[in-house]
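User: My instructor asked us to take a sequence, write out its structure as tokens, and then describe one feature of it. I'm not sure where to start. Here is the sequence I was given:
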Amino acid sequence: MRTTIIFLAVAVASAPLQAKEPPPREALAGLDATIEQALTTFQVPGIGVAVVVGDEVVLSKGYGFRDVQKKLPMMAETQLPIASVTKQFTVAALGTLVRQGKLEWDKPVREYLPDFRLHNEYATANVTPRDLVTHRTGLPRHDAVWYGTELKREQIYHRLPHFGFSRDLRVRFQYNNLMYMTAGHLAGQLAKSSWEELVKNALFTPLGMKRSTFNIAAMKADSNHSQAYELNTKREVVKIEHMALDAGGPAGSINSSVDEMARYLRMMLAGGMFEGKRVLLEADVQAMMQPQVPIGKDVFSEFFGFRSYGMGLFVQTYRGTEIAHHGGNIDGSSALLVMVPSKRIGVIVLANRSATRLRDALPFDILDRLLGLETAGMLARNRELEEKDFAGKDAAKAAGVSDRKPNTKPAHALAEYAGDYQHPGYGRVSIGVANEQLTLGYNKFTSPLEHWHYEVFQAPADRQNPLELTRVQFQTDFGGEVASITIPLEPNVEPISFARQPPAQMLERPFLETLAGEYDNAGVPVRIVLREDNVLQYTILSSVRDLRPIRGTYFRITDLPGTAVEFLRNPAGQIDRMAIYSPGAENVIAPRKQ
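Assistant: Let's start with the prediction itself. The structure tokens for your sequence are:
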């Protein structure tokens, strides 16, 4: 499944000779033409750019179009999703709670949220707020659960125990949006309001970010907002819908403009001060930019140094100068914020096309200019990477390489796969049949499924569908029934297993009442009892077990793998006997006692 991916692309080393820094506005001469050309080269409809030096906004401007069809220009005031740049707002908001004595970074989360639970017991007891915001809990992304969901934030929070870990606590950096969602939930609980209210009161209001919002609906209510675009499978720019991220808000739902984000940059570069008033403690700003978790090298290591994560910011060097930065990428939008604390330089770019390397390159072209350095050619280098990526995919298609096993068939008729499948964390997956094909439904998305091989089906390539290329494998039980599916929704753990759910009728009391009664198994009474919770119990002698509905009148006996019963009807349609199927034994018919 294609999910929201926060694409960072920044790596780095080698210090240049000391260069004389030109006056900022002089340094940016010719930048407009460079950006206009880059929009064409990178196939990006529009981009907003703001540059702060000291406490001065030396550039705040839009380029290209915010709406291609209507020819509406991108402006400095145009609202766009900032995606994961949101994370530093969540950290800053938590910092205000630390200042108020309501939170300590290194106390276990359980001391603030007694209902906090994770799949890993040790992590449950020991994870701290600092761990949540430094991506070191041991939990991998599991992004599919919140992407496009209609669940509320608190509902996902209560599902956390069902998401598998891939590492131990504090062993390795693993980018994780769910833990930022949890950090926002924690912030709202401690503030006795919500994450949104806390960020608004602690940051938006004092910074004068009057038009910044927390959800797509609010952004769209602003007439000066950008449309969303991406490349389709033919590498054509197409308009798409913005993705609502309300449940995962603290990880990436803020919408803003470069004009208002420049205010945030001014505050951060001034150590938490803004227009004579303190917004954040200087110590909190410094902590956000202090390395907490090592990550490693990145691309372009001749320019970028070893990368670490602070709190809501990546930290490393660019050409020998320390920088702090964070990117964001979501459907139809890309963002990158970069700060050079020692020079009090900040750059924010907001583009209206997802997964574009223009946003990775442009801030560093600007830094080269402001630092008086010979250009590192980041625009050309990133464009070359894009072309190599395209070439690799084209080569694979031309060569016809595939792991597909040819000339295979599914084991069942398509209708036998149809139904709902459930996982306690990921929720429901629906498999249907339409136009002689299976269909896959998850969260708000649907896609056809093509037979791949054996019991594996795959969604076709479609850049406009987040389910593209998702593979589903069906499992059949001993009785020949399709019992479950597995889907590799999180690559760092085993494929996620979804158990097949019975048809709704099999859970209804009037139907179950027709099955309850006593049956004669070779002189031994078998009692089928309907409990108050609408579960049938199978009782023979002193053995009592639940019956799990499968299909029609066919039930599995729990705790006896492969053993099942099927209630049979006479010509008049009445249940008058029960078949008992047991592995390693002959099948038995038990007549119903009148």
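For the description part of your assignment, you could build on this observation: The first strand starts at residue 46 and ends at 53. Try explaining in your own words what that tells you about the chain.
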